[in-house]
TrEMBL record:
Coiled coil: none annotated. This is Glycine/betaine ABC transporter. The keyword Transport applies. The keyword Endoplasmic reticulum does not apply. It is found in: Cell membrane.
């Protein structure tokens, strides 16, 4: 009997402590709830530079920005979201996670993340003379966030990127015909496109790669980091990329290689960068991260 009573007492004590802990969690600041961590992506990304600026602008000296990758960030988000736990990430649109989860941007009254960006098509110098057909397609390439989102969600749901791209190209022949209007087919000409492992760029690069393949090109898609992607176009080891986030995210690379590439303009308008949280979190602004 004494042993049974002791067990009951121990169980009650554990329950009481758990209840106290739960109450403490509810009363904790946002910073305490997430261990003062913002889940970021690869350190070379412009959004990480903007996040560091936000940390300074909003006097968040006790916060850290966790470096990783886009895949690691979304995996961490899913884990927290499934448990309805608090989390803060560096986010951008277009991205499939805004279709998969109920998320919101934190207001940025100090403008640390800048204005909305566009995604540009960047080609090596001389491509127009060497590959006029491919140049014309790349120059004509333009779509919107809804179209990109369709491809991204297919990939997110498990379809291979090349298959998702092929399906979209088939289902949107009218759009593709605008990109290829007046373009002659070629016979196995080699072209190499670079891209970063962001879901948006995986989608766009596979789509334009499929279009060029259907025109007779021997297309190689090379996944690299942002720096090598811009370097490759500048030194000619890559022919093009359709992943230039400007004027902020890739500003450093565009400035560094000015004159060594040709900017064909935006292939998608209206991207956005910022700090993102699930809508179930009771926070609306980056200013709210500052503990009083």
């Amino acid at each position: 009997m004494k042993k049974f009573i002791s067990m009951l007492f121990a169980a009650a004590l554990v329950f009481a402590l758990a209840a106290c802990g739960s109450k403490a969690d509810e009363n904790a600041s946002i910073g305490e709830q997430v261990d003062h961590e913002i889940i970021g992506i690869d350190p070379g990304a412009g959004i990480m530079k903007a996040a560091a600026k936000a940390k300074e602008d909003y006097d968040l000296s006790d916060w850290s920005i966790v470096e990783g990758s886009s895949a690691a960030m979304t995996a961490t988000l899913k884990k927290a979201y499934d448990k309805k736990e608090p989390i803060i990430i560096t986010g951008w649109t277009p991205h499939w996670m805004f279709n998969a989860y109920d998320l919101k941007y934190l207001d940025d009254p100090k403008g640390s993340f800048g204005e909305d960006e566009n995604i540009h098509t960047i080609v090596r110098n001389g491509l127009k003379e060497d590959m006029p057909e491919a140049y014309q397609v790349l120059d004509n390439f333009h779509w919107d966030t809804d179209a990109m989102g369709e491809v991204m969600m297919e990939i997110y749901d498990g379809t291979q990127p090349e298959d998702a791209a092929a399906a979209w190209v088939k289902d949107n022949a009218d759009v593709v015909s605008e990109w290829t209007k007046g373009v002659s087919k070629v016979n196995g000409d080699k072209i190499k496109l670079g891209y970063v492992a962001w879901d948006s760029e995986i989608a766009s690069t596979n789509v334009i790669g499929k279009v060029l393949t259907d025109l007779g090109y021997d297309v190689t898609l090379s996944q690299v980091e942002a720096g090598p992607m811009w370097t490759g176009v500048a030194d000619g080891s890559l022919d093009a990329h359709v992943a230039g986030w400007l004027p902020i995210t890739h500003e450093d690379y565009a400035t560094k290689y000015a004159g060594k590439f040709e900017d064909l303009g935006a292939n998608l308008e209206g991207t956005k960068l910022g700090l993102v949280v699930p809508k179930y979190m009771d926070i609306d602004s980056i200013e709210d991260l500052k503990e009083q």
